[in-house]
Amino acid sequence: MSAYNITSTHPAVFLLVGIPGLEHLHMWISIPFCSAYTLALLGNCTLLFTIRTDAALHEPMYLFLAMLAAIDLVLSSSTLPKMLAIFWFGNREINFYACLVQMFFLHSFAIMESSVLLAMAFDRYVAICKPLYYTTILTRPLITKIGIAAVTRAVTLMTPLPFLLRRFHYCRGPEIAHCYCEHMAVVRLACGDTRFNNIYGIAVAMFIVVLDLLFVILSYIFILRAVLQLASQEARYKAFGTCVSHIGAILSFYTPVVISSVMHRVARRAAPHVHILLANFYLLFPPMVNPIIYGVKTKQIRERVLGLFLRKDAKVE
């Protein structure tokens, strides 16, 4: 019992429920979760290794892709191992400070992913609308600065959250009705005035999603205009074909966010597990599909990966 004693400010540990109402199905639910996580690990590690070892891929587009793969690895690894421990072993306990760290990593890296997707839209804009200036605009120092800016923005926006949550007294028990330490799920256990946390959380989410998505859409408006001005249909297909993978990555990231947001507003009376499954889909889907999208649709990546495996098979023989 001592592990659950409430101190003057917070419990020593929280208890993650998992998926409320579906506890009896946790073992079955773990199968697609584990499969998705395994695919995310294999796919993103393969992308990083391929880009790292092939000098021909040290171009802006692939450097941004390497950033995306690294972010996806951290994003999925910050939550999935603990989720699987809940599903397989019933290990629901998470230390209070570990919970805050998980929440910080989860939300920070989600913001970083949005930033990198925006940077990739800028990369496609320059490549198609200003092709003659591509190498002079997207230099290695600028790419480094964009990466630093993405990290700085995420850390700056998320650093206040752990400190804001640490000041609350948690009188509604230690059980978090979720698979991981999501900000609002933790806030619901707190006593006192939580309005600032609620407003801050919504403001940051709206700021990131609306602002980044707006600039992505603007980039593609300019790209579409430039593509339609090309003389031949073949040139149009080729130019727009370079954007297909990025569009797929944008859809895989933002679509679950928008669906989850809409569901919270139009289906408030839906069972809790519906919202939690959607939230998990948002965490699992992009890291799993991004390597597949870029591996299948990007010729250079596809050729390098196939060449890597063919060389291994040749050595075995």
Automatic annotation (TrEMBL):
InterPro entries: GPCR_Rhodpsn (IPR000276), GPCR_Rhodpsn_7TM (IPR017452), Olfact_rcpt (IPR000725), OR51/52/56-like (IPR050402). It is found in: Cell membrane; Membrane. SUPFAM superfamilies: Family A G protein-coupled receptor-like. Residues 43-294 form the G-protein coupled receptors family 1 profile domain. Belongs to the G-protein coupled receptor 1 family. Odorant receptor. This is Olfactory receptor. It comes from Sciurus vulgaris (Eurasian red squirrel).
